[in-house]
Amino acid sequence: VVQVQTSEEAFQQEFEAYAATHTQEELVAYAQQRVLQIAQSELEPEPNVPIPLESDDIPSCIRARKEACRRGYNGEIFSNAAVGVGILAGCAVGTAGTGTIFCVVFVVVGQQFANAGSRERHGQCELTAVQDCFDQQDVR
User: Which pLDDT tens digit goes with each residue over 64-77?
Assistant: First the structure.
């Protein structure tokens, strides 16, 4: 089961409240900012330890493979945000009033689900990285 960090209802309330005192264009710009904030909060920071490019020992192998997983994950999060921001631009053009709010909520909640899928793949990547390093060591 994929868990979304903020509920659809919470986003609905947030964007309805914002729309009550702002223009449609401002609402879309605000939603785009929220998409970028969500993406920023999802990113995994760079490790403080240098990552070896190639090494025969298991700990170095694991660090290098997990770094590849981290970079792939962060790339997916950036991609999810870029898609969301692009679709939100269409919300301003193709909708009005409550349709804009529905469109904005749909996109932001969709980004949450996409990010959850990225987290799942990242976790699997890290598990596979560890197993691959041990398997690689067994072959030698």
Answer: 899 999 999 999 99
Instruction: Kindly give, in sequence order, each residue whose CB lies less than 8 Å from that of residue 116, ignoring residues fewer than 6 positions away.
Output: 2, 3, 4
pTM: 0.84
The span from the CA of 79 to the CA of 118, in Å, is: 10
SS3 47: coil
Angle of helix 24-42 versus helix 98-139 axis, rounded to 10:
20
Dihedral sign for Cα atoms in the order 112, 116, 121, 122? positive
**Secondary structure of 56-115 in the HEC alphabet?**
CCHHHHHHHHHHHHHHHHHHHHHHHHHHHHHHHHHHHHHCCCHHHHHHHHHHHHHHHHHH
